[in-house]
Every structure is written in C-alpha cells, then in structure tokens.
C-alpha cells in the first residue's frame, strides 16, 4: 500500500503554560534583564548561577511538605539512578543549598543575584506561566536590618529604572523574631479554633499546619474571621520592634515610600522579621510584581548552621508587561544600502567599522540594486547609508538627523 503523500505529520504544539518569544515582548524581556544586571552591579551583588534541577528534598524542606507548591505544583521525577529530582520552582532554596554545600559561609555576608527560568504546574493566566522567569536577589549571613533596607532600596531603584514605579506601592510588615512569632501564632490558633465551624476547608487544613496562611485566604467565608484576628504588634518583643524600626528608618533615609500592611504574612516558620511586597492594580488579580522577606531559619532547615538571610524575587514577564510602550527603541543605528555591486568592498568595510565602533548596523546587498535603497529605507534605523558611485567614483550618502545618526556619519566619513 503506497503512502499518502498528502498526509501531513502533525506539528508538535508547545507545552501548555510555556511561551515562545520574538520581537517586541522578547525585547521587553531582555530590557528587564539588562536593567536588573546594571542595577545589581551598582549595589555590589555578585552574579550567581545554580542548577535548574535539584534533589526534591531541597524544595520539600524549604517550602514545606504541605504547601501547594510542593504538594501540587512541582515538576518532580525519578532519574535513572532512582534519585528524586525537581525542576526548581523558585531560586532561594537552591541558593541556600549552594551556600551550605560550597562553603560560601566564608564570604558572609554574601550578596548575590541571578535570573532565569522556574517551573510550576499551575493554571496559566495573565503574566503567569508553567515555565516562567524571575529576577532574584539575596543577602546571606547578615542579621542586620540594614541588609533588609538595602534590598528594598535596590528593588525600588530597579522599578524606577524600568520606568514602572508609578502606581506600584511597597507594602511592608514585620513577623517579629522567633519569640514574637511563636506568641502570635498561638494567639492566632486560639482565635481560629474559636471559629473552626465557620472556616473553609482549606483554612481548616491550614489551622493545624500553617495557621498564618489563613490570614491570606481569599474565601469569603474566611475573610470576616481573618479580619478579626489579632495583629502581630501586640506580641512584638522590644528587639523585634527595634529591628523593624531600623528597616523603616533606612527606607525613610533613602527616600523610599512604603505602607504598613499588618496582614502581610509568610506562612513558613523559618520566616522572621521583614516581609514585603511591591503591589499594583495594573495586572488584574495578580497584583504582586516583586516580593520577599527575611528567612533566618531556612539554611538550618537544609542542614546548615543557623544563618540569617533575606531576599526577594520578581517575575520578569510581569515586569515586562508593565513597561511603557515606547521604552524600547528597536531602531538600528544604521542600515547600509549597496546600490552598486562594484562598491561592495567599501560597504562591507563601513559595516565592519560601524559594528566594531558599537553601532548596530545591517546591510542590504542582495536583490536588484535599483530596489535596495527602497528596501533599506523600510528598515527602522537612525541613519540610512547608501553606497554607490557618482561620476565613476565611490560615493557615500548618509541620511538621518538624530545624534546617533550624526555619530555614525562621523565614523563612516573617517574611512
């Protein structure tokens, strides 16, 4: 039986919750990363790289076995050697693991930053994907409130450099030290136990494992009960009050605006003191564009020595969505049209000199010579350079009035 040549092999489709990027959004994505790289250098944060895959235990210990990320959203599998492996759902745990296993304690306090892809199996929605990308900054080995303040000032400057700080608010809370948090947790359990019969199913499950998370509940049944729960302020030790005061004083001194949100929490027990989110209403329901906090107990959970640490992460896709429409200039610096093939060598020399001098340049040297100028003119560029002959001699004509065009002209005229 002959094969039907008209039958087409079906093209594999992308995995749901992933995306291909080309053109404008890819440029926006790159702009966010480039700005982050520039600002993190200003603050002395070293570039760090950690593996995309880690032993599953790294995230189970750091995120908590009962969290949705671990129980429902991680991409986990056994490799051929039978070891449990997970695609990283966040950066902090892998960086904390690397801090312990590589002996980076010798560099404490260590300021590091990174960016790259992360993976969570969750419902895709605006600005949220199953393979998504984050910026991440951490300070490990410092118990100073100035580390918290510096990270927040870093984040604030990043948003300003990206041009998206308008309409974004820094919300801030303290979770206190261990004594403060334990006392508050006990009071919350007592409060929620008194309303056990009225809580949602999810909050009932959290009551035994993670009662602070009930304060985050979006279920209408839970909101009146959560809103009536005691605040942390009544349980703060004097040391915890002083720590929070030093963080806010640092922000005030740096001119960073902030608002207190006494309901902002982090459910896992290793979080201490500062918790924060930069929020906006410009992304619909997903209002957080950057968030983090102090996690003084995490490295100990991973088998390391007691180590104070604080950090934040931000979704690159969400930041890219907030950029102004005109923030990316996609124009080339110059485009060269070769109108006479006898001058191709001159055009190639001009192309090489422009590029080596830092000018983004393309060349149009194929097709009908008579149509090359019109083809080049359709390419967005500061300078349009035509190379041909006039009166039997090589001739270069340059059009464009911007400063960048004038700079490119000076380079070409020097040939």
Describe the overall structure:
This protein has 415 residues and is of the alpha/beta class. It has helices at 24-42, 56-63, 68-73, 92-101, 145-162, 178-193, 201-209, 223-227, 238-254, 298-301, 316-322, 344-356, 369-377, 403-413; strands at 46-47, 53-55, 76-78, 84-87, 110-119, 131-140, 169-174, 259-260, 272-279, 288-294, 309-315, 332-338, 361-364, 381-390, 393-399. The protein is elongated and about 95 Å long. It has two domains: 24-177 and 237-322, BirA Bifunctional Protein, domain 2 (2-Layer Sandwich); 332-413, Rossmann fold (3-Layer(aba) Sandwich), CATH 3.40.50. A hairpin with a 5-residue loop joins β3 and β4. The strands form three sheets. The protein has an eight-stranded mixed beta sheet with strand order 1-5-6-11-10-9-7-8. The mean pLDDT is 91. α5 packs parallel to α9 (238-254). It has 14 helices and 15 strands.
> How many helical elements?
14
Helical content band: 25-40%
Give the helix/strand class: alpha/beta
> What is the name of the CATH topology of the largest domain?
BirA Bifunctional Protein, domain 2
Question: What's the number of extended β-strand segments?
Answer: 15
Shape assignment:
elongated
What is the count of structural domains? 2
Instruction: List the secondary-structure elements in sequence, H or E.
Output: HEEHHEEHEEHEHHHHEEEHEHEHEHEEH
Strand line-up across the major sheet? 1-5-6-11-10-9-7-8
- CATH class placement of the largest domain: Alpha Beta
The rounded Rg comes to: 28 Å
Q: Point out poorly predicted stretches.
A: none
Task: Report the major sheet.
Answer: 8 strands, mixed
Give the second-level CATH assignment, the architecture of the largest domain.
2-Layer Sandwich
CA-CA gap between termini? 67 Å
What is the typical, i.e. mean, pLDDT?
91
**What's the CATH H-level superfamily name of the largest domain?**
Bira Bifunctional Protein, Domain 2
Amount of beta strand: 15-25%
């Amino acid at each position: 039986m002959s094969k039907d040549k008209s039958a087409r092999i079906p093209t594999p489709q992308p995995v749901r919750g992933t995306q291909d990027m080309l053109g404008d959004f890819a440029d926006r994505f790159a702009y966010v990363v480039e700005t982050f790289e520039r600002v993190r250098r200003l603050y002395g944060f070293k570039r760090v790289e950690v593996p995309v895959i880690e032993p599953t235990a790294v995230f189970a210990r750091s995120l908590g076995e009962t969290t949705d990320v671990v129980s429902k959203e991680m991409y986990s599998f056994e490799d051929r050697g039978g070891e449990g492996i997970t695609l990283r759902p966040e950066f902090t745990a892998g960086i904390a693991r690397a801090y312990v296993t590589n002996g980076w304690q010798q560099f404490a306090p260590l300021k590091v930053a990174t960016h790259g892809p992360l993976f969570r199996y969750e419902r895709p929605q605006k600005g949220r994907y199953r393979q998504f990308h984050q910026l991440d900054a951490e300070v490990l080995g410092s118990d100073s409130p100035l580390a918290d303040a510096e990270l927040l000032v870093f984040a604030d400057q990043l948003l300003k450099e990206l041009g998206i700080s308008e309409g974004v608010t820094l919300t801030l809370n303290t979770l206190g030290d261990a004594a403060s948090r334990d006392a508050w947790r006990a009071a919350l359990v007592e409060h929620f136990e008194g309303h056990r019969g009225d809580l949602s199913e999810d909050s009932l499950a959290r009551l035994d494992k993670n009662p602070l998370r009930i304060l985050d509940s979006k279920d209408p049944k839970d909101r009146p009960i959560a809103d009536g729960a005691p605040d942390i302020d009544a349980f703060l030790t004097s040391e915890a009050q002083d720590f929070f005061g030093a963080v806010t004083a640092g922000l005030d001194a740096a001119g960073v605006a902030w608002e207190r949100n006494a309901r902002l929490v982090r459910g896992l027990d290793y979080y201490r003191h500062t918790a924060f989110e930069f929020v906006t209403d410009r992304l619909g329901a997903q209002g957080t564009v950057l968030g983090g906090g102090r996690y003084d107990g995490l490295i100990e959970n991973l088998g390391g020595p007691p180590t104070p640490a604080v950090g934040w992460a931000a979704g690159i896709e969400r930041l890219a969505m907030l950029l102004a429409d005109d923030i990316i200039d996609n124009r080339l610096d110059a485009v060269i049209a070769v109108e006479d093939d006898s001058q191709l060598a001159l055009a190639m020399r001009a192309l090489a000199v422009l590029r080596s001098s830092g000018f983004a340049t393309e060349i149009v040297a194929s097709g009908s010579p008579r149509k090359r100028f019109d083809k080049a003119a359709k390419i967005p560029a500061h300078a349009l350079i035509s190379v041909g002959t006039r009166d039997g001699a090589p001739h270069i004509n340059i059009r464009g009035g911007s400063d960048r065009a004038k700079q490119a002209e000076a380079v070409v005229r020097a040939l």
